[in-house]
Amino acid sequence: MQPFETLLSESAQAHGHLCPGQVVGVRMAMLGCRLIGLDEPTRRDQIKKLIVYVEMDRCTADAVAHVTGVKLGRRSLKFVDYGIMAATFMNLETGKAFRVISTEEARDLAAVYAPEIAEKGPRQLAAYKRMPDSVLFRVQKVRVNIDECDLPGPTRRKIVCSICGQVIRDKRESIIENRPVCRPCSGAGYFTHAREVSWPDMNWSPGEPAQAKRINSDGDAGNRSLTIH
Ligand SMILES: [Zn+2]
Ligand SMILES: [Zn+2]
């Protein structure tokens, strides 16, 4: 893994600013990866072994994702909305998992570790760099029962909502009166009053660059080109 300061500056750049959360998140990711034996989590051979559950949608989550390379689109980043400053790092190969929790004491101790800085934000930032892991974090060894449908890789299952007809992937349906129902139709969605609308320029498309328009089956560029009008 890159040195801490390198990871921190890259993470801050990706996140948009340098904040105490970046320091905590970078350190959380470094510790978590070390505990599960992945020293280069973003390297090709290790990236497929790692799953990270983040329990908050705050600055720290971005830093954890950046350092570990986990992504929502790869299914390696799981957001569980607990509102807790914690993340669990799981090695899929060994099944080992550790939950790293950012301590409240660390906030209280910022003044002890960076007494020369008066302003709260900069003081936390400096203090979180100086604190030992043992002050900044608590660690729990946990068992994660990850469902096959939550693993990276191709979609394991598709089923059609019996109410709206939408395809539901990976066992996210509810069963109501023995029929599959998507979350929005089950009433447990995050929105209500859905109403189909049309919008201006609704037939717009970005199209493709000219080169890509050629569909070439025999390697003879141009000959069998297909132009889309
Ligand atoms: Zn931030
Ligand atoms: Zn539905």
Q: Outline of this structure?
A:
This protein is an alpha+beta fold and 229 residues long.
- Count of alpha/pi helices: 9
CATH architecture of the largest domain: 2-Layer Sandwich
Question: How confident is the prediction overall: mean pLDDT?
Answer: 92
As laid out across the biggest beta sheet, the strand order is 2-1-3-4-5
Helix content: 25-40%
The number of domains is 2
Characterize the biggest β-sheet.
Answer: 5 strands, mixed
Account of the protein in words:
- This protein is of the alpha+beta class and 229 residues long.
- It folds into two domains: 4-147, 60s Ribosomal Protein L30, Chain: A (2-Layer Sandwich); 154-190, Wheat Germ Agglutinin (Isolectin 2), domain 1, CATH 3.30.60.
- Helix content is 31%, strand content 17%.
- It has nine helices and nine strands.
- The strands form three sheets. Strands 2-1-3-4-5 form a five-stranded mixed beta sheet. It has a two-stranded antiparallel ribbon with strand order 6-7.
- Helix 1 (4-15) crosses helix 2 (20-35), helix 1 (4-15) packs across helix 4 and helix 2 runs parallel beside helix 7.
- Bound molecules: zinc ion (2 copies).
- Residues 15, 17, 19, 21-22, 59 line the site of one zinc ion (ZN).
Q: What are the main properties of this structure?
A:
two-stranded antiparallel ribbon; alpha+beta; 229 residues; Wheat Germ Agglutinin (Isolectin 2), domain 1; five-stranded mixed β-sheet; binds zinc ion; disordered C terminus; globular; 60s Ribosomal Protein L30, Chain: A; 9 helices
